[in-house]
Peptidase family M23
Amino acid sequence: MTEQATTETATPSARLRSAIRSFEPMYLVALSVLAIPGYLFDSLAVLQIFQLFFLFFLWPLVAPLVGLVLGRYADETDATEPTDWIHMGTGREYAIGYAMLVPTFLNPLVMAQDLQQLLGSAVALVRYRGSIPGPETDEQHGSYRLPVDGTWTVVNGSLEREYSHSWFPVNQRYAYDFVITDDDGHSATVEGPTAVENYYCYDEPVLAPADGTVVDASDDDPEAAHGGGLSHLLKRDIRGNYVVIQHAPDEYSSLVHLVPNSVAVEPGDYVERGQQIGRCGHSGNSSEPHLHFQVQDHPNFAVAASLPITFEGVETESPWLEGKAVDSTAADRTLEEGDETDDQSPTVVDGGPERVAITAGQRVSYVDACDDDSSSMPSSQHAARPTWSTGLERLGVGVSVGGVITFFVGIVASWSTVVALLAASVTIGGVYWLVGPLVRDEGVVPRPTRAGVPIGLAVTAATVWYAASSPFAAGRQTLGGALFLLGFGCLVIVAEYDRRRLQRAFDGLGAVSDTDSRRHES
């Protein structure tokens, strides 16, 4: 465990901060699903009260603000959090982050993806029969290095729930957020403004953590010119620009928030461990430039379960222990087989290279330059993703987005207003599909797969128009919820097809994950 004050010696402020950090409200958000029958059946209208649980969705924004206030007035004995030495958020930046809620709720693409994550957690739980893999139960097949060179700071993430990125939704449970800090813990130059160029990690190379094949990538999402709590108003994906790489049959790394037009790989490309795949940026749901990194069991982010991983060739520092009356080397020492320790950052010994678990608050550096002997898959390429598969997935996304518009706008507006907004969304999506390639220098002919979202929106608009003129029309919330679930169901079916296809393709290439296990056993 991370060195921290015991319950007996911790001050009330420290205990309150610990309680806030360990509280997981997203399970309460899931109770909002119970409101759905209340909209479907008049006799169950009382269940609509459960929609209030959706307000707990705001907790991830409230908790840091409360922690910031408690931390600001904490004395030295209260400074027990591993991240207390890091200086990223200020009161002003959190205020800006709150102001950004308004455009976020007005962006149906973002709202649809947030809701898909919640439902995707249910899909992942079903896949694992209610028990998501943890550090004790998951068998790691890939050999991973840090996705960056140099010394970086872990500001979010751990194998332990208390310091995890976010325990729920499960697709980000074991994710990590990396930035570069100076010796005083600042992630940007103190004197300069919040322009992205003043953040130490901005535009730094992002590397493939292991050998693998790129299965998904996006490079054209915009990013805000400033950090300080701001994100781009017109972002189309909560991940911004990203790369997803398959390393084993059910192990995919996801590298997120990259600089626009910095992605150097395409789906189907084979990448080697340590190869540059993009640059650290500020796209998507990002309050300031940073790298979001995780390993997941599925190529689709929304329905994936994040997997616990350990890294090879890592040197760690624990700045929060400096000056404390504890053994400052405890958090970084190496374990031998059979050792027992309470350290949160153990080295795993499994017959192969030593693997280190990292945690929030640590500075981490990649120190092993031997990247040639860690191949986890053969040097080959997978078949390109079928056009119809990508198109159907985007069609599902479009229907889900249309359902979100119908549901939320329908609360305060009439049928005709909802239809008008859907028609406007179809027009905007169609124009982006047609004109986007020219803006991005991709040529004159638009990609057929990108038409999926506007087509899905058109299907939704036609359905809502028909429902509005039908004497047996359902309520706007009921119809919007049904359309969202229909689109999400389409996405899940296509995503599961892709997962199984990629599993077969990996096995066909002679993946060595099982071979590695046998070699270690011998």
User: Anything to note?
Assistant: Residues 316 and 364 are 5 Å apart (CA to CA). The longest strand covers residues 241-248.
